[in-house]
Amino acid sequence: MADNRVVEGRMVTPEALAELIEDDDVMDAEPITDADRECPDCGGNVLEVGYMPQITEFVTGRKCQDCGWKETDTDED
Ligand SMILES: [Zn+2]
């Protein structure tokens, strides 16, 4: 599975990464990509994944590969 990436020392699928970010089950997730930024907490590589927490909602989530930092595009308001 080429889409799988190592996050905090373990291999995750796009769905598993989205569930780490959402802290809940997700319905679907797109392939993981590299976000063009560094983690604000540790300077590590940040991954990005688009996912649907529910059928009517699409969220772009970001998660550090090395620490617990994460955010979503719904966090900003
Ligand atoms: Zn980090």
Secondary structure category? mainly beta
List the uncertain runs. Answer: none
Ligands: zinc ion
The run of helices and strands is EEHEEEEE
Pfam families: DUF5795 (PF19108)
Organism: Halococcus saccharolyticus DSM 5350
Protein name: Small CPxCG-related zinc finger protein
InterPro entries: DUF5795
What does the model show?
There is one protein chain. The chain is mostly beta strands and 77 residues long. The chain has one domain (5-72). Helix content is 12%, strand content 45%. The chain has one helix spanning 14-22, and strands at 5-7, 10-12, 28-29, 33-38, 45-54, 57-64, 70-72. Strand 6 and strand 7 (70-72) form a beta hairpin. The relative contact order is 0.23. The chain binds zinc ion. Zinc ion is lined by residues 39, 41-42, 44, 64, 66-67, 69. It holds the Pfam family DUF5795. This is Small CPxCG-related zinc finger protein. It comes from Halococcus saccharolyticus DSM 5350.
Provide the descriptors you would attach to this structure in a database record.
single chain, 77 residues, mainly beta, 7 strands, globular, binds zinc ion
Question: Which secondary structure elements does this structure contain, and how are they paired or packed?
Answer:
Blueprint: E1 5-7, E2 10-12, H1 14-22, E3 28-29, E4 33-38, E5 45-54, E6 57-64, E7 70-72
Antiparallel strand pairs: 1-2, 3-5, 4-5, 5-6, 6-7
Bound molecules: zinc ion.
Zinc ion binds next to loops.
